[in-house]
Recover the amino acids of this structure.
């Protein structure tokens, strides 16, 4: 956990290469620590390396089926202590896929994020709407932006959805 904590410190300081190195060292010590892969994916994402972020997020999804919850003496394992919430993984993976132009797969990941308890469904609706716009499905996108406004938990998400409605959806209503 010390390596992960050092990585978090570097990430907070926006020293992404150093953070990635710390997370990589943690992974070298234990290839089943979801948190190390998840945090490294976030550092890659913040650095703009969506391909490596996606690879690490896919690894987290794979690890979820192999977690050992207790050690041989019935103590909690390090793998159990370093799990990541499913909704968080699918949400971040959806973002990475969207940046890599995997629109359908990204859309599905945002759906999975909501199904697995991602705490802010409005963010998922916003991303899904943006993906639908990129796929020329304006009417469906506008419906999701409206849902986003209805369920928004943050001011920034609410403002972004309202802005998209004003610029995109008003135009679609005017055109039929």
């Amino acid at each position: 956990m010390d390596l992960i904590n050092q990585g978090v410190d570097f990430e907070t300081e926006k020293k992404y290469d150093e953070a990635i190195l710390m997370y990589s060292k943690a992974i070298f010590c234990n290839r089943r620590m979801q948190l190390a892969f998840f945090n490294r994916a976030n550092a890659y994402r913040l650095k703009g390396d969506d391909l490596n972020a996606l690879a690490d997020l896919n690894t987290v999804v794979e690890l979820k089926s192999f977690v050992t919850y207790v050690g041989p003496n019935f103590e909690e394992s390090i793998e159990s202590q370093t799990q990541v919430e499913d909704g968080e993984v699918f949400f971040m993976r959806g973002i990475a896929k969207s940046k890599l132009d995997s629109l359908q797969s990204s859309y599905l990941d945002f759906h999975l994020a909501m199904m697995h308890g991602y705490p802010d469904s409005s963010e998922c609706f916003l991303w899904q709407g943006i993906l639908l716009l990129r796929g020329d499905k304006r009417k469906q996108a506008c419906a999701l932006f409206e849902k986003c406004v209805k369920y928004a938990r943050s001011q920034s998400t609410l403002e972004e959805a309202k802005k998209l409605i004003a610029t995109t959806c008003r135009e679609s209503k005017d055109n039929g």
